[in-house]
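Case study 2.
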Amino acid sequence: MTNGKAIDNTPANVTTRRGLCERGGDIFIAESLTPASMNTFAETLARLGVTNAIYLVGSNSWGWFADEEGTKHEFGQQSRRLPRYTSYILWSRKKAE
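Prediction:
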């Protein structure tokens, strides 16, 4: 999704979907509560006012993030093939002074 519009995607299977989202200057991870196609997930994010999103591996793939207080949050099922502290995306926000 970019500029508030879903981009047509060809994967038609349904599974749990996740995205790194931007809405109103806030950055968060959204996850579908029920299995969804890529298009349905992107269209739902657009209806919820998400302006930009990057698709993250969904289904029961394992991942984690740390909130502003540094608390670690995990989701999915950790694979034995994936090192525990591997991340697809790493970013930080400069704290206001």
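The beta strands are 18-23, 26-31, 52-56, 63-66, 72-75.
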